Structures are given as structure tokens and as C-alpha cells.
Amino acid sequence: MEEIREALSTHWESPWEMDRWQVINHIIDRYSFERYLEIGVSNPRWCYNMISCREKDGVDPGYEFQPNIANYQMTSDEFFESIPSDKKWDVIFIDGSHVAGQVIKDFFNALNHLSDNGFIILHDCNPPNVWRQRETYMIDGRPWPWNGTVWKMFYYLRMTHTDLSMCCLDTDYGVGIVRRGSQMLAPADNIFYDYNQFDKNRKEYLNLIQPSELDRWLSENEQHLTII
Ligand SMILES: C[S@@+](CC[C@H](N)C(=O)[O-])C[C@H]1O[C@@H](n2cnc3c(N)ncnc32)[C@H](O)[C@@H]1O
Q: Three-class SS of residue 32?
């Protein structure tokens, strides 16, 4: 309990200049996007309802919050197995399971359903302390604040995928932004995904940038847009 109390005292140490939904709306607005998908909706007042987009879809099996308003009430795996292969969205927000192995599955499934110039946004990429990046949501049968191991899959993509453009906004526990493009890879010097090493190198591992740098980053990464 002492450990939890100590960890909770640093619960709000994530910078918070922009909420995740503000980042998503900014991108939708900048590119006049029309189709939005959220994996993991929970309480729609936190994000889903705040999104301004012509077409919105949500996926959630309803593990954490009722009433479940998602129009696809199932897991992300079941969802991606059930939709037509040519169905596309412009922005896909991944915020379901926070366990790296599942998030990476969600990511590649999402990439298959992303429009040419679309974006994948991931929440919880920048945990502020070791406790918040634990493997499990529950401790002694109850949920506690949790970012999970999303950072590990984000760092993995940063180390391995030259065909993606990636950055992470230093706000709201790390809002990861990914699109097709190119990037200089992060150093592959943390093969055991050690948190302490991540903590010292998070700027480079995540390509962590400030919200004030978002528009510059978007402009710099537009050269790969498909012109039809
Ligand atoms: C952190 S909450 C989502 C919060 C919301 N996106 C927001 O921004 O406030 C995570 C949600 O993901 C759902 N979830 C967990 N595992 C999932 C899975 N495999 N597929 C889809 N949703 C999942 C849970 O039921 C929960 O409602």
C-alpha cells in the first residue's frame, strides 16, 4: 500500500498542455478528415464524444464502463476479423488494451484499415514512472491509474520501422502519432526494454516533442502524402 501511495503522489506528473481529444481534433481539422475510429471507448465523455468528425465508430467489449455506447461491442481482434478488408478510416485512435503485445496487434490491424494519408494515434506512450507502466491494470482486485506497456511497442516501432513517421507529444501521458512515411530509427540499445534506461532516453526513444511543435512536425512529414 505504501508503494501505491508513493506512486499515486506522482500520478499527475505528466505534462498536460493538450488533451488527447484536442490532438485528435486538431489533426482531423487540419486535413479535413471524415472517418474516425476509436479502439477502447470506455466513458465517451472522456474522449469519444469530444471528437468532431462526420463519421465516428467505436470498439469496446465493455470491460470497464457501462453503459457501453460503442457501436462495435467486441474486442479489437473480433472487430478486425469481422470488417470488410477494404474498410478504411482516416484517424484510428488506439486506447483499448494497454499491454504491448495486444497494442502491436491493434496497430498493424489498424494500419491495414488506414486511409493513404491517415494517422494512427496511441494513448499512454509516455508513462511518468515505473509503477504506471506495470503489466497489470488491477492490484489486489481493484483498478489503479495505468499506462501499461504501450511505450514498449512504440519504442519497438521506433527502432525497426523506417517506413513510418512517428512522434510522441509530451502531454496527457504521451500521445503517440504515427503515419506512413519515414524516420531516423531510435537506437536499438535497450533490447530488454528496461524502464530505467527508457526513462533516461525517452526523448530519443519516443521522438518526444512538445505540443507547440506539433504543426511543425506535421508539415515536415507531409512529403509522403499520396497525391491522387
Ligand atoms: C483506457 S479505456 C479507454 C478510454 C478512452 N479511449 C479515453 O480516451 O478516455 C480502455 C477501454 O478499452 C477497452 N478494452 C480493453 N481491452 C480491449 C480490447 N482487447 N479490445 C477493445 N477494447 C478493449 C476497455 O473495456 C476500456 O473501456
A: coil
